[in-house]
């Protein structure tokens, strides 16, 4: 089954939304409580990106998703609400869930959630992936296998290397209020970086808005363009490579150290 997504209605930027949009819907769940984030499984120290003790960051895989109940199912349902219902992309769906040929045991799903509500998510796939005729999204676009992404999306041949992973399906819940969107997006990209580095990656590639340098700078993450700026349904997008290993090292160095 080919990848049939279409970026319609000038909404491609929603996949990598601005850090502080002018408007956002009010939150529908709970209060914004100050404190620290506790990881859902490891009970580790909170990353510096958050001041909320109610947020959770979880990385799901085929081998661990049984520990989290319906979290993966809700993640796919949240993707349907964003990409199919709101953005009207033509994607496979079943029982209220969105999925495609890249949701395999090779993938990792990073989810930011709170009280069972999915606030944000992103999918990571190694550039060494292969399942049938498919590899990963940018490479398959370059090979002419995908309808929604032009083959000239990259300047050079798509990389195939264990230290490079691809990020796709990034989304933030439209119900997040403006004051929390920057916090949650920063957390999502931080946990994406941590997950990629834990899998042996140093870099992550993906399609981002052409203005990515501006909002990447806000996060303190270095990124370089690896493809031409192109217009897709009124939005300027560009393939970029993010140096996640440097970012994670920088974030780790900011953690307070214990005094003995």
What keyword list fits this structure?
260 residues, alpha+beta, Aminopeptidase, eight-stranded mixed beta sheet, two-stranded antiparallel sheet, 23% helix, 22% strand, globular, disordered N terminus
Could you characterize the architecture of this molecule?
With 260 residues, the protein is of the alpha+beta class. The protein has one domain: 3-Layer(aba) Sandwich (Aminopeptidase). The chain has five helices and ten strands. Strands 1, 4, 5, 6, 7, 8, 9 and 10 form an eight-stranded mixed β-sheet that branches. Strand 6, helix 3 and strand 7 form a beta-alpha-beta unit. The longest helix has 21 residues, at 178-198.
Q: What is the terminal separation in angstroms?
A: 59 Å
Low-confidence stretches: 1-48
Extended strand count: 10
Overall form: globular
Strand content: 15-25%
Brief summary of the model shown:
This protein has 260 residues and is an alpha+beta fold. The protein has helices at 71-86, 137-142, 178-198, 212-219, 244-253; strands at 56-60, 93-94, 97-98, 108-114, 117-126, 164-172, 203-209, 223-225, 230-232, 235-242.
Provide the fold topology:
Blueprint: E1 56-60, H1 71-86, E2 93-94, E3 97-98, E4 108-114, E5 117-126, H2 137-142, E6 164-172, H3 178-198, E7 203-209, H4 212-219, E8 223-225, E9 230-232, E10 235-242, H5 244-253
Parallel strand pairs: 6-7
Antiparallel strand pairs: 1-4, 2-3, 4-5, 5-6, 7-10, 8-10, 9-10
């Amino acid at each position: 089954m080919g990848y049939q997504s279409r970026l319609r209605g000038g909404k491609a930027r929603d996949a990598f939304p601005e850090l502080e949009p002018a408007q956002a819907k009010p939150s529908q769940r709970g209060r914004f409580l100050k404190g620290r984030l506790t990881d859902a499984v490891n009970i580790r120290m909170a990353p510096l990106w958050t001041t909320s003790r109610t947020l959770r960051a979880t990385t799901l895989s085929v081998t661990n998703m049984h520990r989290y109940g319906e979290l993966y199912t809700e993640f796919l349902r949240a993707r349907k609400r964003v990409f199919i219902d709101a953005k009207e992309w033509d994607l496979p769906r079943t029982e209220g869930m969105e999925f495609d040929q890249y949701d395999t045991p090779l993938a990792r799903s990073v989810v930011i959630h709170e009280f069972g509500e999915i606030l944000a998510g992103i999918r990571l796939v190694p550039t060494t992936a292969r399942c049938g005729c498919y590899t990963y999204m940018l490479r398959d676009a370059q090979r002419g296998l995908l309808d929604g992404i032009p083959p000239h999306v990259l300047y050079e041949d798509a990389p195939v290397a264990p230290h490079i992973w691809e990020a796709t399906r990034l989304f933030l819940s439209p119900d997040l209020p403006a004051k929390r969107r920057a916090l949650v997006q920063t957390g999502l990209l931080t946990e994406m970086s941590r997950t990629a580095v834990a899998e042996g990656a140093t870099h992550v590639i993906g399609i981002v808005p052409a203005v990515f340098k501006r909002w990447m700078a806000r996060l303190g993450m270095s990124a370089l363009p690896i493809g031409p700026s192109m217009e897709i349904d009124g939005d300027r997008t560009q393939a970029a490579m993010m140096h996640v290993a440097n970012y994670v090292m920088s974030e780790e160095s900011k953690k307070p150290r214990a005094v003995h």
